[in-house]
Specification:
Layout (H helix, E strand, L loop, with lengths): L1 H9 L1 H15 L8 H22 L12 H29 L1 H6 L6 H27 L11 H25 L2 H15 L15 H4 L3 H15 L5 H32 L1
Helix pairs in contact: 2-6, 3-4, 3-6, 4-6, 4-7, 4-8, 4-10, 6-7, 7-8, 7-10, 7-11, 10-11
Length: about 260
């Protein structure tokens, strides 16, 4: 694992330039450019807010009189899930999409998922900035516990990179994985309290939902942005440990399989 990280560090300028190229190439012919990365999740959140805000606003603790409570709850959860799903979705096909590049150029293959992660960081920092600007315009200023957002984003990135790298490596050899993962992510969205508060879920089901690491990360984002509460330290440490272990497994799997990837591709 140490050799993989050192090789990525030696190619850090290649990684940074590739992130810039990736970001520009995705919107080179678009007049709105990178704004599309912000518009899509905001429109989705706005649709849910318009449809469900009257039903679910009163279910948020101590927020029954705040008309912005549910939209903020929804936006903060969407931000957390957007980071998670984007990294996994792009890592899933990153080696397949760059098969020709891997055959023609010699560079550490670990650079590809790192580039994907870097691009996701840029996209979601823009989304976070847009959310904060919108909230400021509407007259809501998050409390001081918003300082926990960077730590929450880092843990979410590590978790999603670990899962994404495992799935992306396996997808090279077992292409069915690429068909199953989008379905699982869609189910994961609904089994994570993003659109609805966890308090409306029956108590018999709630312990099973809490086994999902994203349950705690999404709750951390919502606590920081809406309720002005620090995340649960015990839950955060457990999720961080799971994320690091998954990333270690992913790097070990990738190192053992990388020599065979080019032949399969």
């Amino acid at each position: 694992m140490k050799s993989l990280l050192l090789s990525a560090w030696r190619y850090r300028y290649f990684i940074l330039s590739s992130i810039k190229v990736d970001f520009r190439s995705r919107f080179v012919r678009s007049r709105l450019g990178g704004l599309w990365m912000i518009i899509n999740p905001l429109v989705q959140a706005a649709m849910f807010a318009l449809i469900l805000s009257q039903v679910l606003s009163g279910r948020l603790p101590d927020m029954a009189d705040n008309k912005l409570a549910y939209p903020i709850y929804l936006l903060s959860g969407t931000l957390a899930w957007n980071i998670f799903s984007e990294v996994i979705t792009r890592c899933l096909t990153v080696f397949i999409e760059n098969g020709n590049l891997l055959k023609k150029l010699v560079f550490p293959r670990i650079c590809l998922p790192i580039i994907v992660t870097g691009s996701a960081i840029v996209n979601n920092l823009l989304l976070l900035g847009a959310i904060l600007i919108i909230l400021a315009i509407l007259g809501f200023v998050p409390g001081y516990n918003v300082v926990w957002l960077p730590l929450l984003m880092v843990i979410t990135l590590i978790l999603s990179l670990g899962i994404g790298l495992i799935l992306g490596t396996l997808n090279v050899f077992i292409r069915d994985i690429g068909q199953v993962v989008p379905i699982v992510l869609q189910l994961g969205w609904w089994f994570t309290p993003i659109v609805y508060p966890a308090s409306i879920v029956p108590e018999t089901i709630r312990p099973w939902m809490q086994l999902n690491p994203m349950y705690w990360l999404v709750q951390g984002f919502q606590n920081a942005m809406l309720f002005n509460r620090a995340p649960s330290w015990l839950a955060l440490c457990c999720v961080a440990l799971i994320a690091v272990l998954l990333l270690r497994v992913a790097l070990t799997l990738f190192r053992r399989a990388s020599s065979e990837m080019v032949d399969v591709l």
